[in-house]
Design goal:
The chain is built from 13 helices and twelve strands. With 334 residues, the protein is α/β, with parallel strands linked by helices.
Length: 334
């Protein structure tokens, strides 16, 4: 396998399966983790369960980026609020030639790198407040990724593989580059279905199109996705939010490749599932409100596009999370 030094930041559900697969393929892999998860990985290796197979992979693991040193490739698999907090501590991993591959939900800090027309180069405060992420993980060093697979943390240090196997990867500029080819080769060699794309921002937006409504509404109601779609009032709210996001996407040059009804049908196929935001709320973890909902609204504001339904839901879910101690913001400063 490619001898690249690869560090996966956040060896949770997604980062854990990526790190384990890369290690299985013979990669030089380290993980940045913490707490009981780190302790179990150090003691027993990173365990991956796929069907009836259980594999324990020995990988270097630490909670201090300085202990792992400069990397060729850094795969970032943290939730957005965690990355904002952790970003300054990641500097020892990143050199001028390090390739950064974020595998995260929502609008990322690099979204307007070489993209967006009049918004090209824009720093979204909802995605990267004060530019704290970009200072350590420069957008020019990013190869974007959109993840279409699932897995869960079964126990500290133990990842259970779920459904799906698709990773979409692409340069923010849309160019085909040697570093993109290298990432495709590494991830394909680790057993993922990898599709390079010249429109990675489009793929980010298309995934967000379904997440930015179902996630916060589920957190507000406590309902699984099927119940949200079964109720005509909440289903209509989802539609209105999707219509708003489609207008913003079109202004960015992103055409929706399916109708809202088709997207509903895709969600229906997943059954009675809890969204990630609802799971985080129930587990007492911070919610990805800013990356998933506030950032697309900020883009709409910058483009002069009204998003009243999305803003109403944002106001409600922020207060729900704030009152649960899982989100902080200054109401008076808004």
């Amino acid at each position: 396998m490619d001898p690249a030094k690869i560090c996966v930041v956040g060896a949770g559900a997604i980062g854990g399966v990526v790190a384990a697969r890369l290690a299985q393929a013979g990669g030089t892999v380290s993980v940045l983790a913490r707490g009981p998860h780190l302790a179990r990985i150090v003691a027993d290796g990173l365990t991956l369960i796929e069907g009836d197979q259980r594999s324990a992979l020995r990988v270097a693991a630490a909670d201090d980026a300085g202990a792992l040193g400069r990397q060729d490739i850094v795969i970032v698999a943290l939730k957005a609020p965690g990355l904002i907090t952790a970003a300054p501590s990641l500097a020892p991993l990143v050199g001028p030639d390090t390739v950064v591959v974020p595998m995260m939900n929502g609008v990322p800090w690099w979204f307007f790198s070489s993209f967006g027309g009049s918004l090209a180069g824009t720093t979204l405060q909802a995605a990267d407040p004060g530019g704290v992420i970009a200072r350590v993980l420069p957008p020019a060093q990013v190869v974007g990724a959109v993840v279409h697979l699932s897995s869960t943390v079964a126990a500290p240090g133990v990842i259970r593989r779920g459904r799906g196997n698709l990773l979409l990867v692409g340069e923010p500029s849309g160019a085909e580059t040697p570093r993109l080819q290298r990432i495709v080769g590494l991830l394909s060699g680790a057993g993922f279905e990898v599709q390079p794309t010249s429109g990675i921002q489009r793929e980010v937006w298309l995934k967000l199109w379904g997440n930015m409504n179902m996630n916060p509404i589920s957190a507000l109601t406590g309902s699984t996705a099927d119940l949200i779609m079964d109720d005509p009032l909440t289903a209509d709210l989802v539609r209105r939010m999707m219509e708003e996001a489609a207008v913003v996407g079109q202004a960015l040059g992103i055409a929706m490749t399916m109708t809202i009804d088709q997207r509903f049908a895709v969600t229906r196929e997943l059954g009675a599932f809890k969204t990630s935001m609802l799971q985080d709320l129930e587990a007492g973890r911070g919610l990805e409100i800013d990356a998933i909902l506030a950032a697309p609204i900020e883009i709409g504001d910058r483009l002069g596009i009204a998003m009243p339904y999305s803003k109403a839901v944002l106001g409600l879910v922020r207060q729900r999370a704030r009152n649960a101690g899982l989100y902080a913001y200054d109401i008076a400063g808004l």
